[in-house]
């Protein structure tokens, strides 16, 4: 390459490229959304990341950069087409000493972690150190994206979101400069990264998060995690919705939803997976932790539901089932169709669908933040992102 980049660079048409390019959404959107970056860079450290940004900024026109860590974004948004490049951080920051540390300060416990760990690796570290924090369930998800989109999981009602406990983000910005963001410095970046527009504001390398001490929760045994919820090789039609309804117990929702699940199980080639999580109530920490400092949407949720069908030679049936379920959900679950960034995207052109993901005030603030922190659109690698304000 003729410069100081130390990591791997993979070109299309090679076996290494094919392997690196096989992320969760490839099975479903690899062709339709052209998830084939011009080059895939796997940096080994921050100077390597800066080198890639220099190259991307130097070309005319500049080369859009898609940021990927665990590659588990269901919509395919951590990839891009041949005009862009992908910065793959899954192996970049895995030093067991420098990239995952316990910090005890003022009677509180924190960890400073890199983005490159998988949830399973984080769980092992937490268990060893007698601490815990709320996260989602899939053990192969990486922290790079997960920290930003929340961590919806079984501890959601009792502890809120992972992002609620983040105290500092370490970021490489579009110029290659290292910056930190917290509730008291670079507040806009902090807001935009946590619940905003993942992968479109800069490159997250590390973060600090407050964790809970097991000793304060006697009898707690930690949570077991699901192995792999579904194979990444199986295509899917997916939806994750949120409702603030308090009427689900008597509006016939559960009877309707059970019938939908049954229909899927009886359709040849479909395999259904659903998670229903309860978040509401006056004592809910999901409600209480809602903060102006972060951009997480729909913090008045009572229930969050995921309904996915995976299919084998049955794409039309999967899409028909998802369409039918979406129509029913408008009646029984949520008439506003409030979606979550990490799990729903029937149309991934954000300009068409942003109202499903953000309220107007949040979206407009995020647009301003994008204009300031990604002024040239370097991190616009695909359509699933908040558009910068004009
Ligand atoms: C099988 C499965 C189960 C899941 N279960 C849950 C669950 O229970 N709860 C839940 O909350 N979520 C869940 N998710 C969603 C998952 O947590 C998010 O999609 C998460 O963002 C994935 O992070 P990643 O780094 O693995 O993915 P990636 O695809 O690499 O990244 C996701 C997004 O974040 C951006 N990004 C990634 N790394 C960085 C970085 N270092 N700097 C800046 N931007 C970055 C990407 O550009 C992309 O837009 C699940 C996903 C899958 C596939």
From TrEMBL:
* Cofactor(s) listed in the protein's UniProt record: FAD
Superkingdom of source = Eukaryota
Keyword annotations from UniProtKB, A to Z: FAD, Flavoprotein, Oxidoreductase
- Extract the GO molecular function terms from the UniProt entry: FAD binding; oxidoreductase activity
Residue stretches making up the FAD-binding PCMH-type domain: 33-214
SUPFAM superfamilies, per the entry: FAD-binding/transporter-associated domain-like
UniProt-listed PANTHER family: BINDING OXIDOREDUCTASE, PUTATIVE (AFU_ORTHOLOGUE AFUA_1G17690)-RELATED, FAD-BINDING PCMH-TYPE DOMAIN-CONTAINING PROTEIN
Protein family according to the UniProt entry = Belongs to the oxygen-dependent FAD-linked oxidoreductase family.
* Protein name as annotated: FAD-binding PCMH-type domain-containing protein
Q: Which organism is it from?
A: Neocucurbitaria cava
């Amino acid at each position: 390459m003729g410069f100081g980049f130390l990591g791997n660079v993979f070109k299309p048409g090679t076996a290494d490229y094919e392997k690196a390019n096989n992320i969760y959404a490839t099975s479903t959107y690899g062709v339709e959304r052209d998830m084939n970056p011009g080059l895939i860079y796997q940096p080994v450290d921050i100077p390597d990341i800066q080198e890639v940004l220099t190259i991307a900024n130097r070309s005319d026109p500049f080369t859009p950069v898609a940021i990927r860590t665990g590659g588990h974004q269901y919509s395919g948004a951590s990839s891009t087409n041949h005009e862009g490049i992908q910065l793959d951080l899954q192996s970049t920051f895995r030093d067991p000493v420098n990239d995952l540390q316990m910090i005890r300060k003022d009677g509180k416990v924190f960890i400073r972690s890199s983005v490159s760990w998988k949830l399973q690796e984080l769980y092992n570290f937490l268990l060893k150190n007698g601490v815990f924090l709320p996260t989602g369930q899939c053990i192969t998800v990486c922290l790079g994206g997960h920290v930003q989109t929340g961590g919806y999981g079984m501890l959601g009602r009792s502890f809120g979101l992972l992002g609620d406990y983040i105290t500092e983000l370490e970021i490489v910005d579009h110029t290659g400069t290292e910056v930190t963001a917290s509730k008291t410095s670079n507040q806009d970046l902090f807001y935009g990264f946590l619940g905003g527009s993942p992968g479109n504001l800069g490159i997250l390398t590390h973060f600090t998060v407050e964790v809970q001490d097991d000793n304060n929760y006697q009898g707690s045994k930690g949570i077991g995690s699901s192995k792999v919820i579904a194979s990444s090789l199986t295509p899917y039609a997916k939806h994750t919705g949120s409702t603030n309804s308090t009427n689900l117990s008597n509006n016939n929702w559960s009877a309707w939803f059970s019938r939908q699940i049954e229909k899927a199980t009886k359709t040849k080639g479909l395999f259904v997976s659903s998670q229903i999580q309860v978040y509401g109530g006056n004592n809910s920490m999901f409600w209480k932790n809602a903060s102006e400092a972060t951009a997480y949407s729909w913090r008045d949720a009572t229930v969050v539901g995921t309904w996915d069908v995976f299919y084998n030679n049955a794409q039309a049936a999967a899409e028909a089932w998802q369409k039918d379920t979406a129509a029913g959900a408008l009646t029984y679950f949520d008439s506003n169709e409030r979606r979550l960034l990490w799990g729903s995207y029937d149309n991934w052109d954000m300009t068409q669908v942003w109202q499903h993901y953000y309220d107007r005030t949040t979206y407009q603030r995020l647009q301003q933040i994008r204009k300031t922190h990604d002024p040239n659109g370097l991190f616009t690698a695909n359509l699933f992102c908040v558009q910068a304000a004009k």
